């Protein structure tokens, strides 16, 4: 009960006072929610394949590591592929690891045939390379202690893009924020660079020894002028790390909307701030009385 009360207090501190706000139509909110969730899960699948593909490559091919120029992951009609390619201006695929749609890390097929990159792979390679070059020359990108930037190329019906995520280099930490979106045109040239969150939010997930201190929820806010809803990068981070935490939900609060991610269902709902306050006001009042 103490932990729940503390969580409600944190939510109250993040909640903004609202006036006569003109909210989006519910159908538009639901459509945006679906598109963000779809993008976030696509980003997650790419990162999942890269995580496990890298583990498999490192374990099975230590002798090839000096030859590697990088890796990319992408979806296929049957599942997910992770490829490691050689160094140089004309890279060759050295190892391909294929996973099924079920995304079972124990079920995979390895192909060590050296081959040219397919058209899709070459596009992903090209925009990833361009993103790395832009990251090195553009002061928009920041690197923080105990973290590293990770460019993730994605191609789908919404276009060609590279998400740049910040990952922890230490254990028991989940990082939200310090993420970026680089959009590309059809010629694989950078169109725009967008900083998704204005800051970095590291959350310690070390297991608590006191049951009253177990964290059942994560919370962060989006400042005005940034995304009104939980972002695709938020969703990707949650799906990658939620199994290492005790979280049941993650809540993202903006001026006018509250996004809630259900960690057991891997789904998001978005409420207006007015609806959120109406639902939670009695609980907050009760929670405050505990202190």
* Average residue pLDDT: 89
Proportion of β residues?
25-35%
Order of helices and strands: HHEEEEEHEEEEEEEHEEEH
Poorly predicted segments: 1-6, 284-291
Shape: globular
What's the helix count?
5
Query: Mind summarizing the main beta sheet?
Result: 5 strands, antiparallel
- Gap between N and C termini, in Å? 12 Å
The secondary structure category is: alpha+beta
- Share of helical residues: 25-40%
- Report the C-alpha radius of gyration, rounded: 21 Å
Question: How many strands appear in the DSSP assignment?
Answer: 15
Write up what this structure looks like.
With 291 residues, the protein is α+β, with helices and mostly antiparallel strands. Among the domains are: 1-23 and 206-291, no CATH class; 127-204, no CATH class. It is 32% helix and 32% strand. The strands form 4 sheets. Strands 1, 2, 3, 4 and 5 form a 5-stranded antiparallel beta sheet that branches. Helix 1 packs across helix 5 (273-288). It is globular and about 60 Å long. Residues 1-6 and 284-291 have low confidence and may be disordered.
